[in-house]
Amino acid sequence: MRSRLFSLFALAALLIVAGCERSDVSPFTIEGDEPGYRRGKDLIKQGRNQEALSEFQKVIDKRGLNNAAESHLEVGLLYQYHIKDPISAIYHYRKYRELKPNSQQADLVRQRIDAATRDFARSLLVQTDSLDKLDSDDLAKRLQRENDKLKADLAAARANRPVPVAAADEETPAAEPAPVAAPNRGAYAITDNSSPVVRAAVDIEPEPTPEPVAQPRPPVAQPARPTASTTVTRPSATTTRPTTTTTRPTTGSYRRHTISKGDTLYSLAQKYYGNRSRWRDIYAANRDVMKSEGDLRIGMEVKIPQ
What we know:
The protein is mainly α. The protein has helices at 2-21, 35-45, 49-63, 69-81, 86-99, 106-128, 136-158, 167-171, 265-273, 279-285; strands spanning 187-192, 195-201, 254-258, 301-305.
């Protein structure tokens, strides 16, 4: 009986020691104490919003999508009010509500989602000049496509893979290249997929036929006069053909843009193409100087594909 009690006591002691040795320490520190999060907040106070966005995104990449609620909220605010990208803002707002549904700011974030949705609808109105063409179902589907695209972009960025082509871009068929015109007599045609057709016509005159040179008659010898030698110089019939110079338009040309405060790939695509979804073209053309899609610095020069 005494040995049984001793065994039970020893087992209880082992359980107590094991419980004391359990560690409740999270593998991550509190998000507000993350160095990247603090740097992002300081950069916002300095008005360096693009750099702040990059810092918050690094925190999300480090901690994971489901362990960085406050960084999602800060990124959403930057996208909505400074970068003017409501679709990206909606995505990060939803992640915040998913991770902290009962927080004090949950209702405020829901209102921001509604405001960002209205901002997106107004941007469609500016682009299409008629919001009546879009019913509620079409708008919901487009929002869902944009949301799915953003998720894929973030996943590709974390895996260091090339960003997939957006579905919205796939819906628009690429313009077929103009056929190369066969050269006709006296005309040349040059076509290029990215440039208008350039034609240069040159009228080639027929070669002039040289007229026969009259041969002089030999002089008549006279006994009292010495014979005079006559030298006849034949004119050389030289025909100069007109040269035709055809200038081929330069392909793959770029415009240059110097990054200023508030510039993003989305705003550059809207400025130069009138289509935010073409930001990938700019990013692809500048992969040699950009480490990520948010790696834009004031004073940096980027190439804008034609």
